[in-house]
Amino acid sequence: MSSVPVAVVTGSNKGIGFAIVRALCKQFPGDVYLTARDPSRGQEAVAKLQEEGLRALFHQLDIDDLQSIRALRDFLKEKYGGLNVLVNNAGIAFKVHDTTPFAVQAEVTLKTNFFGTRNICTELLPLVKPYGRVVNVSSMVSSSALGGCSRELQQKFRSDTITEDELAELMTKFVEDTKKGVHEKEGWPNTAYGVSKIGVTVLSRIQARMLNEKRKGDHILLNACCPGWVRTDMAGPNATKSPDEGAETPVYLALLPSDADGPHGQFLSNKTVRTW
Ligand code: NAP
Which chain regions cross the lipid bilayer (predicted)? Predict the structure, then answer.
């Protein structure tokens, strides 16, 4: 078994994830895994980094597919005995003018952004080694969407005692409410992406709390962040940041030094803790 430190970035064949891998290849003292659901897109991305003189390794990972997640889990367990850095970056967003029915957008978006990210965490968090760092890429849209929730929902999403199961039930309820056409009446904002990212931010707060309760002595730091508005296929060419600039906050959180005792369980943008 290798004792080399290992970092994994989900959805990293392009966009912000690719830029995170690029930065980690330069700064992380160990093996960096670029992962992609499509192996050929992943291998192409690895080759692109190689042309820049950077060495990333590749592993297939589709966060919608539990078998794929478990194959990565078993690989990491066997080869490295765990992992040191996990960046949950993979995500999707329908374009503003997409005509797919809202209920379908809600189901598809929540499936990847919330439930996929949650499944990765369920399988990989137990493998994270002491002093490990976990970064969940959320969005400032999670904050604005929270502001668009009913007072009752806001209270639940800001609660310091909400459980992961309760959060998952709420995310499922959002999808069900969109199918019945009652989501606004039930206090939800009109954004599937926003609700999915509320899920990612709240999930991070819960997971950090669980680490405090169950693995306090392990000094693991887990946070959610917004990369900013970044020029990628998701956000388009008019966004203000380059992918490398978008990678800065996630990479800062992934590389928090071993003597840092925070941030932990926070939501950050531009390397600054934001009020939730
Ligand atoms: P992007 O260019 O569209 O890249 C998204 C990446 O996620 C791609 O590599 C994509 O793979 C991958 N992905 C999607 N579904 C996946 C799945 N089921 N399993 C594994 N990988 C999957 O988007 P981006 O702008 O870089 O976004 C990266 C993250 O930042 C997302 O979580 C996004 O919500 C967040 N974010 C972005 C912005 C922004 O302005 N761009 C702002 C706030 C937050 P394929 O190539 O196979 O599709």
Answer: none
Any atom of ligand 1 within 6 Å of the Cβ of 108: no
- Could you say which DSSP state residue 5 is in? -
Q: How many CB atoms lie within 10 A of CB 76?
A: 21
State if pTM tops 0.85: yes
Does 64 contact ligand 1 (Cβ within 6 A)? Answer: yes
At 218-275, the pLDDT tens digits run: 999 999 999 999 999 999 999 999 999 999 999 999 999 999 999 999 999 999 999 9
Q: What domains does the chain contain, in order, with CATH numbers? A: 6-96+112-148+196-274 (3.40.50.720)
128 in Cβ contact with 142 (< 8 Å): no
**CA 275 to chain CA centroid, nearest Å:** 19
Length of the chain: 276
Q: Considering only CA atoms, which of 36, 89, 86, 43 is closest in space to residue 65?
A: 36
Catalytic residues: 193
CB 28 within 8 A of CB 254: yes
